Amino acid sequence: MAHSDSDSSTMRPNPKQLVDFFSRSLTSFHSSPDVFRILCTLPHAGAEPVSRPASGVRRLVVLDSSFNPPTRAHAEMARSALKWASSSSSYSEGASFSSSSHSDGTRLMLLLSVNNADKAPKPASFPVRLGMMEGFGRDLLGSLGDVGTEIDLAVTTMPYFHDKARVISESWMYSSSSEGREPEQVFLAGFDTVIRIFNPKYYGDGGMRAALGPFFERARLRVTMRTDDEWGGEEEQREYVRGLGEGRLDDVGGDVAWAGRVDLVEGRGDGVSSSKVRDMVKRGEKEGLERLVDGEVMGWIEGEGLYRE
């Protein structure tokens, strides 16, 4: 569903100005030693986005994607996670969350990896993807219907979840000096990503525990189960996670405790990938696209002529 300007306290920026803003922001980022940076925070009232410091964050929900383009499935993952995070009492330090407000210690990050600085990304440039993320975030705020949620748009050069969690933590952007602790990070992922995370081939000898041990100390995975045949049914996917808790990875440096940091949630029956959206646009199948992307993202696809080739 598309949302009007009145659906949230945000103001619709000019697309050209947004692309220019994000181009300048990325140039600054790539010319710095930084490996992680927050570029802006939603909602914003000015013509140009700005970032705002975060305080009192107890759970940071991280939607890490190529956003090429952001889809309704991405939005549903974020909404579901925010609802869970703000109502759950399972935070490791015993914090309580109000079920009526996402703002009670919960914040959302849209994270884009931009590690190929010397290679022009296809088929949408990073500044344009960030523009779509900004519009996606404003549509998401409108659908949440509250005024407390804040969304950070951030970039990193880190390729893997465990590295991303580490640099977010080391940035100290979300740490509470008064309470002396950092927020629990909740990374949203599809089941296919989980298979890769627990694949020993991505780690050297002893590398899996060295990489994932610190990751699961500061983060958990909220996994949307796949509904296609490639990964089996939901029971097979649940069985895979149960196997993690029964020592399946012991021989390659795994830890049975990690299974307790993996939460499985049901996927939407009409789950959709960004590649499906790109294919539909390329084939000129405009009918049905509005079911797959929200209004702001659709505006970017049409206005910038994205994915036609």
UniProtKB/TrEMBL annotation:
This is Nicotinamide-nucleotide adenylyltransferase. GO terms for cellular component: cytoplasm; nucleus. The lineage of its organism: Eukaryota, Fungi, Dikarya, Ascomycota, Pezizomycotina. SUPFAM superfamilies: Nucleotidylyl transferase. GO terms for molecular function: ATP hydrolysis activity; nicotinamide-nucleotide adenylyltransferase activity. It comes from Trichoderma aggressivum f. europaeum. It comes from the Eukaryota. InterPro entries: Rossmann-like_a/b/a_fold.
